[in-house]
Amino acid sequence: MNLTDRVVVITGGAGGIGAAMARRFTAEGAAAVVVTDLDGDGARSVAEAIGPVAHPAAVDVTDEEQVRSLVADTERQFGRIDLFCANAGVTTGGGIEVDDAAWDRSWRVNVLAHVYSARAVLPGMLARGGGHLLHTCSAAGVLTAVGDAAYTATKHGAVGFAEWLSVTYRDRGIRVSALCPQGVDTPMLAGGLADGHLGAKVIAASGAVLTPDQVVDAVVAGLAEERFLILPHPEVATYARRRAEDPDGWQAGLRKLVRRLTT
Q1: Which of helix, strand or coil describes residue 9?
Q2: Most-buried pick from 62, 120, 159, 228 (CB within 10 A)?
Q3: What's the whole-model pTM score?
């Protein structure tokens, strides 16, 4: 996808990767960038800093009716949506002890929100014969988020759903990309480090933390090539192969890393 003159919607756009997408897509010549977030003030701040191409909206992606309204309002104002970026995500930093409410929120934000946006935006894209869905899924979706059970499970679900969409709709003109970065310098990572989350410590110890702008460099290249898996950290592909070829050895390596960081 060439981003020039495209109409783009981004969820989770008040900071981190979402805000970086909004800035870069505008620089690439997008006709309109709708910046949405549960934090409406944050979305407005990002949009105002970008200029008249950007349009803020306060949206709870776990509320399907709000997502439908977002899509309908955008199509009404701009005539279409060319690229929908389901980018909002949450983490817990815990394991099986995490309460049901946190598991439910992880499921709703990290998986069901992708379902809701696909339900809302696909009819218009299919009618026009084209469109692109970009789902931020995380390297946790193809590997494991050590220390965060809910994040691991839901991000695997997000990758699986994105793959299903791609298999089902590509021949009808719909392109789907799963963005799977590893460590990114975002408020989510900073908060995890501040709270002492094991997963955040693992990411920091890897020494491969990218800026959101570096992640979006990979996004723009991946969209242009219409790739399914967009891996800002190329080493994730190597890790995924090792994990598939020798799951026991892969898990042994992770356990060794955990012992080193916790003893």
Answers
A1: strand
A2: 120
A3: 0.94
